[in-house]
Amino acid sequence: MDEASRTTETPTGLSEPTATMDAAEAPTDEQDAPTAAAAATRTAPHWVVFLGLAAFLVVADQLSKAWLVANVAPGEVVNVVGDVVRLVFNKNSGALFGLFRENAVLFGILSLGVVGLIVVYHARAGRSLYMSLALGFLLGGALGNLTDRLRLGYVVDFVDMGIGDFRWYTFNVADAAISTAIVMLVAAAIIPSLTGLGERSSDG
How far is residue 123's CA from residue 101's CA, in Å, rounded to a whole number? Predict the structure, then answer.
């Protein structure tokens, strides 16, 4: 009788702790939900940084151009820092820095394609804060000049820098943003570790 009792109790005694341990180790739906949400957050692109910077640059670009058009006549030169930095109202029907003039419509169409490519590329590479900033500069600059081309048929350029007769191409806020983006992207190509700054890891 005693042996029978021990035999019966032994499997029962072993199975109960095992069942208890399995239940404790099994993750619940409530535990899975925060983990999944955290993983999604870590792998998501920096859309706020990307779109926020682009929006800020478009507003700054358009406001600066509106001020210039209201206060400086076409062809007028306003000295800001002697002869080194001047404001000149220039109508640019070409591309960046006045290149390839009389092609505003063509560059407007190309700009639409570029904007789409920038957004798509950011969706793939936007886990890096560095890349989100670079692409944000690029998108803001492209949209700023695209707005001019669609609205006016030309781009308003107004910053003229140089010494004496040696002058840089006249540019605007959008051009400066695009140039900044190009420098950042070239730097990332030379120093790949830059793209890891502020990167959201996909492996958690």
Answer: 33
∠ Cα 64 136 147 (to 5°): 45
175 counts as catalytic: yes
Condensed to tens digits (0 to 9), the pLDDT of residues 148-178 reads 988 888 889 999 999 877 877 889 999 999 9
Considering the candidates 61, 148, 157, 160, report the single residue annotated as catalytic: 157
pTM, 2 dp: 0.70
CA 6 to CA 10: how far, in whole Å?
A: 6
Q: How many CA atoms lie less than 13 Å away from 181 in the CB half-sphere?
A: 23
pLDDT in tens, 18-56: 444 454 455 555 555 555 444 444 567 889 999 999 999
Strand, helix or coil for residue 128? coil
**So where are the chain's domains?**
2-37, 46-196
**What are 183's two structure tokens?**
């420098």
Distance of CA 78 to the CA centre of its chain: 34
| 61, 148, 160, 175: the active-site residue | 175
